[in-house]
Write a structure and sequence with these properties.
The chain is built from 15 helices and ten strands. By secondary structure, it is α+β, with helices and mostly antiparallel strands. A hairpin with a 2-residue loop joins β1 and β2. The structure holds protoporphyrin IX containing FE.
């Protein structure tokens, strides 16, 4: 029995987790004045950890594995069953190399170009509208760019519905009830559609460039030199398309930050080279997206006097680590300039996971930053718009976080 680790006195904290949302682990870390505590979630013991050293521990693959750690309800909505997020060891490394091979500088530059074209086309549409709802619109334009980049055909009739299915999977992760159910059916529909498409590619009925994600998923060979099951190939293709569409949340957060901290509009216009990257990094740090990550203990070990027992579920506090006052000066302030002196360590700015890209850290982090830089360029420098009265509060108990209004803009026009 572990005497040292603070324990939350609770039969089960699953309901408290839904209520506290992003703040669940962080709040208890503050209350117990500890970067580690023990609780019970979903009927089992869980150890919650946060901060830079905890992140470093969490990414030690000799101590933690993902297999068996990701609840089926998350796999059936957000990730896909048995996809890359659940793999360990050699199987994971091999699959991850395939994902990372899609992210060369050249391929990212192609994405940036396609994305800029979609922003241009969207702005032409927006100029004809009185009001634009930025979340839905950016979801669609990101989906169009994602499909073109990944070698997936776009059908004008269904494009909006398919884009919405991608965000429905993300919307589902922190929900119970209808929002969760909608994400599951969106996933079923999307997997069935793309499974058919993978089979068509294999049968030679469609041709796509070899450097696209569709080609990679259709023809990737596993460690035993076998093709992925067509359903699994579809699931991994969704693991490219869905998170690109999810950058729509960050586009909204960029717009919110520009609206709430308008002094940066001038700073971005005056010295863009300097501020753009800082602003994007600060948006990723400051606004909530991933609440925490889970893994399971491979074998008993002790860390700083705390015992970790084989099979225990361990949650790493992502939101709290990106808001940790021990790591970030005035952590609850939006302050892009903080990145002037950031030492770019792999375990502090972890909105998309930590460690190296050979581990589980997000394969799409560079693409996300590039896409946010494009969005910021349009929002701050290329268009003008009004922001009418609306509810822009972000509730930490809504996971994923999104303002009620989805960010409405009026009278969008190109800057002269
Ligand atoms: C993994 C966040 C965008 C592809 C992850 C992880 C997080 C994350 C927290 C898990 C890290 C871990 O398990 O340790 C985000 C956020 C994004 C984003 C907040 C912003 C929208 C993207 C994009 C792509 C992508 C654009 C692809 C184009 C992946 C993949 C994994 C992953 C394939 C699994 C990596 C692995 O298990 O090895 N992401 N991501 N993500 N992300 Fe992202």
């Amino acid at each position: 029995k572990n005497g040292q680790t603070p324990q939350e006195k609770t039969l089960d904290s699953s309901l408290a987790l839904l209520k506290d949302g992003y703040d669940f682990i962080f709040k208890r870390r503050r209350e117990m004045d500890s970067d580690i505590f023990q609780t019970r979630l979903l009927g089992q013991k869980a150890i919650c950890i946060g901060g830079k050293e905890a992140a470093e521990l969490f990414y030690d693959t000799s101590k933690f594995q993902r297999s068996g750690a990701i609840p089926k309800r998350i796999q059936k909505s957000l990730f896909g069953v048995n996809a890359i997020q659940t793999l360990d060891g050699e199987a994971h490394r091999h699959r991850k190399m395939m994902f990372m091979s899609l992210m060369s500088r050249e391929r990212l530059d192609v994405f940036i170009e396609l994305l800029a074209e979609e922003w241009e086309a969207a702005i032409l549409r927006w100029e004809e509208l009185e009001e634009v709802e930025l979340f839905g619109e950016s979801t669609e334009l990101l989906y169009r760019a994602a499909c073109r980049w990944a070698g997936v055909p776009i059908d004008e009739e269904t494009v909006r519905a398919k884009a919405e299915d991608m965000s429905a999977m993300v919307e589902a992760f922190g929900a119970i009830g209808p929002r969760h159910a909608a994400g599951r059916s969106a996933r079923r529909r999307t997997e069935e559609w793309l499974e058919g498409y993978i089979m068509d590619l294999r049968a030679g009925e469609f041709k796509v460039f070899e450097e696209t994600a569709a080609y990679a998923m259709a023809f990737h060979r596993d460690l035993k030199d076998r093709e992925l099951d067509a359903r699994m190939a579809a699931i991994e293709l969704i693991n490219i398309l869905r998170p690109i569409v999810a950058i729509g949340y960050y586009v909204v957060f960029n717009a919110m930050a520009l609206h709430q901290y308008p002094e940066y509009k001038e700073k971005l216009a005056a010295d863009e080279g300097k501020y753009r990257q800082w602003f994007v990094q600060e948006t990723r740090r400051y606004y909530p997206f991933t609440p925490f990550l889970g893994a399971s203990v491979i074998h008993d070990f002790t860390w700083k006097g705390h015992e970790f027992e084989k099979g225990t579920m361990v949650l790493l506090d992502i939101y709290g680590t990106t808001h940790d006052p021990k790591l970030w000066d005035e952590a609850d302030k939006f302050k892009p300039e903080r990145f002037e002196h950031w030492d770019s360590g792999p375990f502090d700015l972890i909105p998309q996971g930590g460690g190296g890209y050979d581990g589980h850290r997000c394969a799409g982090e560079w693409l996300t930053i590039d896409a946010m830089r494009v969005a910021l360029e349009y929002l701050a420098n290329r268009i003008e718009y009004e922001v009418p009265e609306q509810d822009l509060d972000l509730s930490l108990s809504r996971m994923p976080a999104l303002p009620e209004s989805h960010f409405v803009m009026k009278n969008v026009r190109r800057k002269p």
